[in-house]
Amino acid sequence: MDERGRLKVLYVEDEPDLRERIRIVLEMYFETVIASSDGKEALALFDREHPDVVVSDIKMPIMDGLELARCIRERAPETPVVLSTAFTDTAYLLQAIEFGVSAYIRKPLDCRELVAAVSRVAAPVLQRRELEEARRREQVSLELLLGESPAIQRVIQQSRRVAETDFSILIQGETGVGKSYLAALIHGLSPRRDRPFVTVTVSSLAESLVESQLFGHVKGAFTGAQGAKRGLFEEAGGGTLFLDDVDCASPAIQAKILHAVEQKWFFPVGGTVKVQIDTRIIAASNRDLLVDAKDGTFREDLYYRLSDLVITLPPLRERGRDIALLARAFLNEISLELSRVPPRLTPDAILLLSRQPWSGNVRELKSVMKRAALFAGETLDAEELAGILSSLKGGADGFGVPLTLDELTRQAVQQALVATGGKKMEAARLLDVEYGRFKRLLERYRL
């Protein structure tokens, strides 16, 4: 079971048959699933069981889902809530946003969409758990967590030094190199480690709601804003706000981020009272933002505000012996979860690993090792590893040269569109790609 699976989910639904069907599905993906028939009972279960994520219907007797979300927000504001309903009235969506609901799923439920939503909103929960575990170990060894190759040593040195400061950090690197993981490690090493670490993927925010999500709003700021809501800048107060895919922010949002970072205050949407903040910013992008700034596609003044220090994470193919080190670490970690003895990597398997282009970087390597941990015997040799690589890449055969990154990406996008009948949002979820990035891929490949 991967880390995502080690979650406790509370599922609330008043219809018995649906409640049982969805409970069974959720138990296939998550470690513990607790079911409840109404909001009042669910609230008692929440107080007793302390679930990581709550999934609830809206229209229920005794206490509806919106009231349940409000009560949970008061008790544990960091617990994500996912609401589901057959009703399409946007007033429900606005109220859900008002109560800090993390996601909104329409009925009839698509199980894949539900599992993806729970996994997505649980990411900050898992990050906090990782940080707590790191603190319990008292001392974080970046070499063990990141690697020991010359290419990564500069990253380790920079991370250690900047962690003790309040400098803004810009982490750049290809998709899958571990930018969000490094940001969490830096926060865990910093004096702010006991304060919130809040992650937001800018490309995943709806354009009409992004300003309210980041900066909050006051009561009556827009239709349906029945109360004030704190934004993520304020939620991260005293801690760190990680802005992933910051290059996807619109010019207007870039301007407001710049003002907040420079002045340490901002106005919430519709507000006239300044909100003072003490929030460290770590931003990330898979683009070279200095080039974008010079081209005028990203604000140059914001670039320099975010880049007190730029850390460039090298791609896995440039990290030499880290490939074998990380492969063994992933095998050990996943085998432990599977309660089995880790397969031993043979020398020819290590050689094959070192010769791969790793277009998906560390994320791809971990995916390969998951498959290996599940199916390999006592040893993992080059022949068996080549079969795993071929099956995952969908085009490389045996020891042949794998497809290029462009070919793999285009093929994956095309296959996802076919599998979902051309439904773009479902295809993006199938590929585990943020929708904003998926749309850019469609434009790039003219699909």
How is this structure best described in words?
This protein is α/β, with parallel strands linked by helices and 447 residues long. It folds into four domains: 3-121, Rossmann fold; 125-312, P-loop containing nucleotide triphosphate hydrolases (Rossmann fold); 316-393, Helicase, Ruva Protein, domain 3, CATH 1.10.8.60; 405-444, Arc Repressor Mutant, subunit A, CATH 1.10.10. The chain is 49% helix and 13% strand. The protein has 21 helices and 14 strands. It has helices at 16-27, 39-49, 65-75, 90-98, 111-121, 123-136, 142-146, 150-163, 179-189, 210-215, 232-235, 251-263, 289-295, 300-306, 322-337, 347-354, 361-375, 382-393, 405-419, 424-430, 435-444, and strands at residues 8-12, 32-36, 53-57, 81-85, 103-106, 169-172, 197-201, 240-244, 265-266, 275-276, 280-285, 309-312, 344-345, 379-380. The strands form four sheets. Strands 2-1-3-4-5 form a five-stranded parallel beta sheet, with helices on both faces. Strands 7-8-11-6-12 form a five-stranded parallel beta sheet. The chain is globular and about 65 Å long. The two termini are 35 Å apart. The model is unreliable at 395-403 (pLDDT under 50).
